[in-house]
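lol ok so funny story. i was supposed to be doing the assay writeup but got distracted and ended up predicting the structure for this chain instead. priorities right. anyway since i did it might as well share w the group, maybe its usefull for someone
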Amino acid sequence: MLEISAAWLGTNEKTDWIIRHACRGLIRKGNLHALALFGLQAVQEAQITDLLVETPTVSIGSRLSFRFLLAVRQPQKIRIEYVIHYARPSGKHGMKVFKLVEKFFEPGQAVFSKSHSFQQMTTRKHFPGGHRVAIYLNGVAFAEAGFEVVI
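and the output, tada:
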């Protein structure tokens, strides 16, 4: 699929959208070839600091709030995602990737804040227990913090 995507990318604006849509699962998994196809390389001289879970205990039905600082020393295109590692009834964890932003960053620092709902849904059921949130830059984990979900 990546070979066809590389050959077709840039031929038409609508085709580009279809290709990106088709590759989004690979992008979320951090596939280096898929990331490179869209101009995302290994992150150079950037770091995540001060990841703070502002709501260390989250009730089901409420929201998780967290923030972090991105420090970039070299201009580059970065895709920032956060990953929630959800507790499952079996004791294992399942993960879900959420995109925050994908853009070109100049050297400097930027603060990011995010709120994430733990409302029960038909597509996602939440369970009490230890959960984690991780910050990914171009498909690579840079910071992680834990929090507790309660009934």
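The first strand starts at residue 46 and ends at 53. The chain has a mean pLDDT of 89.
back to the writeup now i swear
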